[in-house]
């Protein structure tokens, strides 16, 4: 490159310094400025829009603590429990890292469910944001799988018998079930081979999640954020630059979330640590009450409410798969539930049913819970397959606001 | 119990406080009397251990419990957490013999334990433990205070609850004794504590109740050795985050003042 060349393109390198030098060769600085500083964001985002940033930070915390736990973990049936005990007792600050990691799993799933609810309620899945929605659902599935694999790793009683129940669920698939269960477990019961696989699956998924988050955020930055009014911003008055407006707002949301997180880690660890899992895995002794973590309970409730075992498996997997169809099941051009009274009531019913199914799951769908569970399962699917497609017909003569600045959105 | 945890979480988050009463009592294997609640210093959000009670409890464990019960997650070095110096821990470890590999002839040898060694198991395997104890292997005590339904209250009640069986009580197997706080009101462990059984170096009178209270405190400490550090760090973290939250709120309000 000659001097003449560089004079031809004076815009290539503005100013002096390392950052300008770097940006001329790899434009990360200008990309960061474009996507996280100047990035135009609707001015009326409410607190529910904090959860994207919160999830990103919790993911970082999970990766950081997880790597240090993995350094001290032994993925064998004979050594796993003792290595986790050593992390808790002998590794300096190991108890703190593990407590943050275990509580982090619950906090992550809780934030994820809120984030998902916000997408459904404000119609963030609608054109042109379908790819944001679909990549988000892929993330949900990956995170659930990672959380399950992670729960097996300490190899306590609940770990072992949770893996056993999951194996039995696979076993219920007609024809290939028993073969598939044996293949996935590497034996007739959870053991050394399955534990080693769960460990690798857990680690691989954790970093794969990071990659898909990149795709999710990239897709979001193509279309820009939805907002509580669900109408696209028109002009500069409707938007504010991401920094300092949403950096300051996300900072506040993160600190408030960290407060709840800290309360769980330091004062209520029994909320996320199942006491039974402090007993080492014993294949000869089934615990009295096998229950998954709270974030799986609604799906466990579906599994147990459906009379047939295979049917229950289909229904609980279908409860997630049906979400992938939502952008095409919803025919209404209106995004936000604020302007969709019928859909708004239906969403309320959906939340009630989802929580109810969690209680059904923890009561093993016995007695009255069985009836409640079946009603909730029917409503859950009817919401997406019947009420959502039909709701557009109830929405006539809706007047949407012209701009975000005029509407009281924030 | 997982479900109860959700209810507690929901209660903490403040939107389902009335639901917390729905949580059923912890699942217990067989019927037994309800242990009376006792005040423990390690309870509550700022609870911590009375380390002199923990040290006396260790004396009870070392002189009584350890004859039958293992505590295999603990190392001798972990005892520094109850206020002992490394020299004191080293002396305790040195009184124990652990497997030391093999000698030049290939025969197994033993050596004195070091602070890095785990507590010696009293039996070589669970079968030997069961055979020596009326067919029931004594449970490992590393996490007993957490995993035993009823926790420290029930452990204390059990240790002090041996009494004359009611008329008509028949032991279900040889060596079983009556105890109203054990599952099915029967236990394979004969009364382990009596007055003066343990020698306390700090001059505390070694009554059965005192021994039971101290060893229960010790077991609770072993089950959660970092409880006090967790509470102390938690209070500091909460103060820091609350302060940060105020700053973040003021910053946010100032940044947004030209928008609203």
UniProtKB/TrEMBL annotation, chain A:
<dbReference type="InterPro" id="IPR030689">
    <property type="entry name" value="Cytochrome_b"/>
</dbReference>
<keyword id="KW-0479">Metal-binding</keyword>
<protein>
    <recommendedName>
        <fullName>Cytochrome b</fullName>
    </recommendedName>
</protein>
<feature type="transmembrane region" description="Helical">
    <location>
        <begin position="310"/>
        <end position="329"/>
    </location>
</feature>
<keyword id="KW-0249">Electron transport</keyword>
<feature type="binding site" description="axial binding residue">
    <location>
        <position position="115"/>
    </location>
    <ligand>
        <name>heme b b566</name>
    </ligand>
</feature>
<dbReference type="InterPro" id="IPR005798">
    <property type="entry name" value="Cyt_b/b6_C"/>
</dbReference>
<dbReference type="GO" id="GO:0008121">
    <property type="term" value="F:quinol-cytochrome-c reductase activity"/>
</dbReference>
<dbReference type="InterPro" id="IPR036150">
    <property type="entry name" value="Cyt_b/b6_C_sf"/>
</dbReference>
<feature type="binding site" description="axial binding residue">
    <location>
        <position position="202"/>
    </location>
    <ligand>
        <name>heme b b562</name>
    </ligand>
</feature>
<feature type="transmembrane region" description="Helical">
    <location>
        <begin position="132"/>
        <end position="153"/>
    </location>
</feature>
<keyword id="KW-0349">Heme</keyword>
<dbReference type="Pfam" id="PF00033">
    <property type="entry name" value="Cytochrome_B"/>
</dbReference>
<feature type="domain" description="Cytochrome b/b6 N-terminal region profile">
    <location>
        <begin position="18"/>
        <end position="229"/>
    </location>
</feature>
<dbReference type="GO" id="GO:0016491">
    <property type="term" value="F:oxidoreductase activity"/>
</dbReference>
<comment type="subunit">
    <text>The main subunits of complex b-c1 are: cytochrome b, cytochrome c1 and the Rieske protein.</text>
</comment>
<feature type="transmembrane region" description="Helical">
    <location>
        <begin position="199"/>
        <end position="220"/>
    </location>
</feature>
<comment type="similarity">
    <text>Belongs to the cytochrome b family.</text>
</comment>
<dbReference type="GO" id="GO:0045275">
    <property type="term" value="C:respiratory chain complex III"/>
</dbReference>
<feature type="binding site" description="axial binding residue">
    <location>
        <position position="216"/>
    </location>
    <ligand>
        <name>heme b b566</name>
    </ligand>
</feature>
<dbReference type="Pfam" id="PF00032">
    <property type="entry name" value="Cytochrom_B_C"/>
</dbReference>
<feature type="transmembrane region" description="Helical">
    <location>
        <begin position="251"/>
        <end position="273"/>
    </location>
</feature>
UniProtKB/TrEMBL annotation, chain B:
<dbReference type="InterPro" id="IPR002326">
    <property type="entry name" value="Cyt_c1"/>
</dbReference>
<feature type="binding site" description="covalent">
    <location>
        <position position="65"/>
    </location>
    <ligand>
        <name>heme c</name>
    </ligand>
</feature>
<keyword id="KW-0812">Transmembrane</keyword>
<feature type="signal peptide">
    <location>
        <begin position="1"/>
        <end position="29"/>
    </location>
</feature>
<keyword id="KW-1133">Transmembrane helix</keyword>
<keyword id="KW-0349">Heme</keyword>
<feature type="binding site" description="covalent">
    <location>
        <position position="69"/>
    </location>
    <ligand>
        <name>heme c</name>
    </ligand>
</feature>
<dbReference type="GO" id="GO:0046872">
    <property type="term" value="F:metal ion binding"/>
</dbReference>
<dbReference type="InterPro" id="IPR036909">
    <property type="entry name" value="Cyt_c-like_dom_sf"/>
</dbReference>
<feature type="domain" description="Cytochrome c">
    <location>
        <begin position="52"/>
        <end position="223"/>
    </location>
</feature>
<dbReference type="GO" id="GO:0020037">
    <property type="term" value="F:heme binding"/>
</dbReference>
<dbReference type="InterPro" id="IPR009056">
    <property type="entry name" value="Cyt_c-like_dom"/>
</dbReference>
<protein>
    <recommendedName>
        <fullName>Cytochrome c1</fullName>
    </recommendedName>
</protein>
<keyword id="KW-0408">Iron</keyword>
<feature type="transmembrane region" description="Helical">
    <location>
        <begin position="233"/>
        <end position="251"/>
    </location>
</feature>
<keyword id="KW-0732">Signal</keyword>
<feature type="binding site" description="covalent">
    <location>
        <position position="189"/>
    </location>
    <ligand>
        <name>heme c</name>
    </ligand>
</feature>
<keyword id="KW-0472">Membrane</keyword>
<dbReference type="Pfam" id="PF02167">
    <property type="entry name" value="Cytochrom_C1"/>
</dbReference>
<feature type="binding site" description="covalent">
    <location>
        <position position="68"/>
    </location>
    <ligand>
        <name>heme c</name>
    </ligand>
</feature>
<keyword id="KW-0479">Metal-binding</keyword>
<dbReference type="GO" id="GO:0009055">
    <property type="term" value="F:electron transfer activity"/>
</dbReference>
